[in-house]
Target: tRNA (guanine-N(7)-)-methyltransferase
Amino acid sequence: MMHTIRSFVLRQGRISNAQRRACETLLPKYGIPFDKNPIDFEVVFGRQAPRILEIGFGMGDSTAAIALAHPEQDYLAIEVHTPGVGSLLNQIEAMGLTNIRIIQFDAVAVMQHMLPPECLDGVHIFFPDPWPKAKHHKRRLIQPPFISRLCSHLKQGAYLHVATDWEEYAQQILEVLTRESLLNNISADFASRPNYRPLTKFEQRGIKLGHTVWDLIFRRNHITAYSSGNR
Model:
């Protein structure tokens, strides 16, 4: 059993009236309640299409932009914070997007119970909480048990794309992903930002201040997940 990783803290935060209304009226339409049974993606999206999982979408700006630019793909977006969920719901409705579904729950539990084996064509984890204090590093999402479990849900050839603006965390992520036997790095170390990942407002401000963002893109190799020596 995978060790439980609590990679987030539920903060009250400030939620706008529009975000609250979206959660009340739109989440039943675009959301998937947490359940202990596997998702049937064809039923949820009403079609067979490439499936991309996004873990921790923040306010959802990048999620909506990517889904709008790639209507041929379906996106399962996971976030625990209500303001972000409300924000993405409003964008889905305003843009008329039909290829996003949201689960407002812990990503670790969703993987354990709701994702079938080898069901994903890609995974986006953009700017996960770096938990910069050393005593909090154990809360970081990108750790070997989490990546090991995540790989079992990737199809052969599927990709995992992680981006962070925290250099020390970037190095740790590179080490964790490199040590996972089911993953191969598409670059020597860090990758260039692919066109499909839009620059966020936060990232644009950081670049103007001289900050760096590290992208890591790995692909699932053709070793069977259940025969790996790490399991």
In short: The mean pLDDT is 91.
